[in-house]
Amino acid sequence: MKNLYTLLVFTLMLLAIPCNLRAFESNIENSNKIVLAKDTFVGGWAYTLQGAPEGYEKGFLLVLKEDKTYKAQVQVGGTTFLAENIVVKKNTMTFHVMVEGQKVMVALTASGSKLSGTSTTAEGVFQITGEKTLSAGE
C-alpha cells in the first residue's frame, strides 16, 4: 500500500511538470513583451485661441513623429504653417511658426486628451485650449 501511494504521488508530480513548464514559459514570454506607451502629442488637436485676431481664433494642430524627430503644422482657415524648433519634454511642447512674417512662439501642455498653453506674438499673449480629435493609429 505504501508503494502504491508513493507511485501515485510520483506519477502526479511527473504529470504536473509539463503544466508548470508551460506556465513558466508563458511568464517568460509575457515578461519580454514591450508595451509602447502612446506619445502624448502625436495626433491631431482642434484648438481655440482666446482673443486672437479674426480668422485665427480656431485651428488644427497636427503632430507627427518620425524616429525621434517631431514634425508639426498648424492649420488655420485655408493656410498651413509649419512648426520650427520643436522641443518636447514629457507633456510639454514648444515651437514657433512664422505667421505673416512674424515669429509666433507656442508653448503647450497636454493632459490626456486636453491641451492648454499660450501663443506669444508682438500683439500679446493668447491662451490656447484644445482637444485631441485624431490619435495615432486611427
Question: Can you walk me through this structure?
Answer:
The protein is built from one helix and nine strands, in the order αβββββββββ. It has a nine-stranded antiparallel sheet with strand order 4-3-2-1-9-8-7-6-5, with no helix packed on it. A hairpin with a 2-residue loop joins strand 2 and strand 3. The N and C termini lie far apart (67 Å). It is globular and about 35 Å long. The chain has two domains: 35 residues; 93 residues, Lipocalin (Beta Barrel). With 138 residues, the protein is an alpha+beta fold. The longest helix has 30 residues. The N terminus is likely disordered.
List keywords for this structure.
138 residues, Lipocalin, 1 helix, 22% helix
Q: Helical stretch count?
A: 1
Name the average pLDDT.
78
Query: How many discrete domains?
Result: 2
CATH architecture of the largest domain: Beta Barrel
Instruction: State the CATH superfamily name of the largest domain.
Output: Quinohemoprotein amine dehydrogenase alpha subunit, domain 2
The level 1 CATH classification of the largest domain is Mainly Beta
CA-CA gap between termini: 67 Å
**Can you tell me the CATH topology of the largest domain?**
Lipocalin
> Biggest sheet: strands, sense, closure?
9 strands, antiparallel
Q: Which range best describes the helical content: under 10%, 10-25%, 25-40%, 40-55%, 55-70% or over 70%?
A: 10-25%
What share of residues are in beta strands? over 45%
Structural category? alpha+beta
Cα shape: globular
Instruction: List the helices and strands in order.
Output: HEEEEEEEEE
Strand order of the largest sheet: 4-3-2-1-9-8-7-6-5
